[in-house]
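Summary of Year 1 activities. Much of the first year was spent building the evaluation harness for sequence design. The harness presents a backbone, in tokenized form, and records the residue chosen at every position. We chose the following record to illustrate the format because it has been used consistently in internal testing since the harness was completed.
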């Protein structure tokens, strides 16, 4: 409601769960403007019948109950012959209501303000997008305002979601009543309840009645009274990712990093945002840490929030938890839960459900940089104009993997200094608990985008270290290309350098399937607790969309507009680097077994347990030193 009068705002999007005052936003804005800043206004509902119902059940009581409106709207002075349920006149303006299914009504008279309610229920018309049609009516007005409100539906298909992503993506923080730490409340991250476990640690019973919000900083569970107190401290923050001063900014990730690094919540907030407040507006504007400007415009203020922000008792944490438990294993109920409770679009995946928050919840803390199961490390790199993102992946038996490290090398990628730093990163070594050092065996760097030449040069000079420039296969004919090309590129002809064409779609099929694995073992992905939620969101951002080629429909992976997918590209390239090693003759399992056998050999004989008679003795300890010194010894074996 503050955004309605925030200077500079032209569009407002509210993508929120049900019963979170979306309708009140429209009612109050309409009432405010009719009284204090009159002009022609239009409310759009999915159908004309819904518009009539809205007029009867919402607008009429609003006018009746509000003295200033009662005097202005529908009095004898202004009542005209036209006055109907769908048309109300007042001094200086009118309020029209229309159904989104009747585009003729939408395109009739010019209006200054448009309120689109329940956008995701709008019918598909031949004339196209009803929101766009309604907005076209505002063309002649200066200071026009377009407001859209709805719970989202399916990701990539939801009108309110695409509108939200176009905006500045505001999220709300609430301060902990115990420690004052501000957090962006999230059902999966902050609400917990008692669970009964069996001896193996499997959950055998849930107690949703014990559900509470737990502070991410001090760990205190909030009583319902404390939760309501916290809701009273809500402030909205622009969270859209941006570019400024040749760097990219991710407000939410930067905030998490700042307080994890030890800053107080207040200091961490002040590092990332400026509090911008006036008599009728209040918002945390994202600020570039380098130049101090506000890189994210507020022309389109977009908001999202779930039930965890609801002040109603019927939406208290125990109720949301119970709803989650009854819907989590039922796909249809799950869609409804995401939309109506979380206020988030439901991610439809071709295979199994993959949810960023659930992946984040299983992150691990490892005893050393390199967990014991790892045999080989590869790197996948994604090149942007202003940075290179690198993921270091440890590979174990049957491609079980560990996300060892994720590094963002900031800097103009047309400059040598940036690539020098990338090189330094690739030369990093990693230690296992027993002290063994690991180096990077191979790396694939994506050369798509504007920096193909730079990536080629970088990799060409480092082919001996197996640093490969890659490019995604177009898969235009609908066929999946193999992850690593079966025809070996002839790198001997160094004058014509060509990137390695990798099958990104088949890699992403594999990736999505592996993300759905829940038990450690072949293909399972282990994540480090050091990754932020935004990283998991990037890893799960893409979805399959149908493409038509030569009369056939096939599915390709696509990143929805406004979403980031760097983590996906990095992982695909790390997978490609492993595939490249295998193509060159590496036997992954044999290498892993040799490297992990070396741990047992290096470990001192366990003191506590006496080995049983005839127990296998540790393998001869000759290998470890050899392996530590000589990466890539499998190449020799092949020859
Ligand atoms: Zn706290
Ligand atoms: Zn800047």
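For this record, the design step produced the sequence shown next.
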């Amino acid at each position: 409601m503050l955004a309605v009068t925030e200077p500079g705002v032209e569009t407002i999007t509210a993508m929120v769960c049900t019963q979170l005052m979306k309708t009140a936003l429209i009612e109050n804005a309409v009432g405010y403007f009719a009284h204090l800043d009159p002009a022609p206004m239009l409310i759009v509902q999915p159908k004309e019948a819904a518009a009539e119902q809205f007029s009867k059940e919402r607008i009429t009581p609003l006018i009746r109950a509000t003295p200033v409106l009662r005097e202005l709207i529908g009095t004898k002075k202004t009542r005209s012959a036209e006055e109907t349920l769908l048309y109300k006149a007042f001094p200086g303006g009118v309020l029209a209501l229309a159904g989104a299914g009747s585009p003729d009504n939408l395109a009739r008279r010019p209006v200054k303000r448009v309120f689109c309610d329940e956008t995701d229920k709008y019918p598909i018309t031949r004339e196209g997008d009803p929101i766009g049609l309604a907005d076209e009516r505002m063309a002649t007005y200066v200071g026009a305002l377009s407001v859209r409100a709805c719970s989202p539906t399916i990701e990539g298909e939801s009108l309110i979601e695409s509108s939200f992503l176009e905006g500045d993506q505001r999220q709300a923080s609430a301060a902990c009543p115990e420690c004052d730490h501000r957090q962006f409340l999230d059902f999966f991250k902050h609400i917990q309840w008692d669970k009964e476990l069996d001896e193996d640690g499997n959950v055998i019973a849930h107690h949703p009645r014990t559900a509470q919000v737990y502070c991410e900083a001090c760990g205190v569970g909030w009583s319902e009274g404390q939760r309501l107190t916290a809701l009273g401290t809500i402030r909205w923050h622009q969270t859209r990712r941006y570019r400024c001063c040749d760097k990219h900014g991710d407000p939410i990730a930067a905030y998490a990093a700042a307080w994890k690094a030890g800053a107080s919540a207040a200091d961490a907030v002040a590092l990332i945002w400026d509090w911008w407040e006036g008599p009728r507006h209040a918002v945390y504007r994202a600020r570039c840490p380098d130049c101090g400007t506000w890189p994210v415009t507020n022309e389109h203020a977009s908001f999202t929030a779930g039930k965890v922000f609801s002040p109603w008792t019927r939406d208290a944490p125990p109720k949301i938890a119970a709803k989650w438990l009854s819907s989590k294993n039922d796909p249809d109920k799950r869609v409804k839960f995401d939309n109506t409770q979380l206020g988030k679009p439901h991610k439809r995946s071709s295979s199994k459900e993959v949810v960023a928050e659930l992946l984040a919840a299983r992150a691990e803390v490892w005893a050393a940089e390199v967990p014991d199961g790892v045999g080989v490390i590869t790197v996948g790199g994604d090149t942007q104009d202003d940075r290179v993102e690198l993921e270091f992946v440890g590979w174990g038996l049957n491609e079980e993997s560990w996300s060892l490290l994720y590094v963002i090398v900031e800097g103009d990628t047309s400059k040598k200094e940036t690539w020098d730093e990338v090189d330094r990163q690739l030369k990093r070594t990693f230690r296992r608990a027993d002290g063994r050092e690991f180096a990077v065996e191979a790396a694939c760097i994506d050369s798509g985008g504007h920096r193909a030449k730079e990536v080629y040069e970088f990799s060409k000079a480092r082919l001996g270290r197996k640093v490969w420039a890659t490019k995604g296969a177009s898969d235009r004919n609908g066929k999946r290309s193999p992850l690593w090309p079966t025809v070996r590129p002839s790198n001997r002809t160094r004058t014509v350098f060509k990137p390695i064409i990798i099958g990104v779609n088949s890699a992403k099929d594999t990736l999505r399937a592996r993300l759905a694995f829940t038990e450690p073992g072949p293909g399972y992905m282990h994540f480090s607790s050091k990754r932020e939620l935004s990283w998991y969101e990037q890893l799960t951002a893409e979805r399959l969309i149908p493409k038509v080629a030569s009369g056939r429909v096939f599915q390709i992976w696509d990143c929805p507009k406004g979403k980031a997918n760097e983590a996906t590209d990095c992982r695909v390239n790390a997978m490609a680097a492993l595939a490249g090693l295998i193509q060159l003759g590496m036997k992954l399992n044999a290498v892993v077994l040799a490297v992990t056998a070396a741990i047992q050999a290096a470990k001192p004989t366990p003191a506590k347990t006496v080995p049983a008679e005839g127990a296998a003795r540790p393998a001869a300890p000759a290998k470890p030193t050899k392996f530590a010194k000589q990466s890539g010894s499998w190449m020799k074996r092949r020859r």
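Residues 176, 178-179, 181, 215, 217-218, 220 surround zinc ion (ligand 1) (CB under 6 Å). Quantitative recovery figures across the full test set are reported in Table 2.
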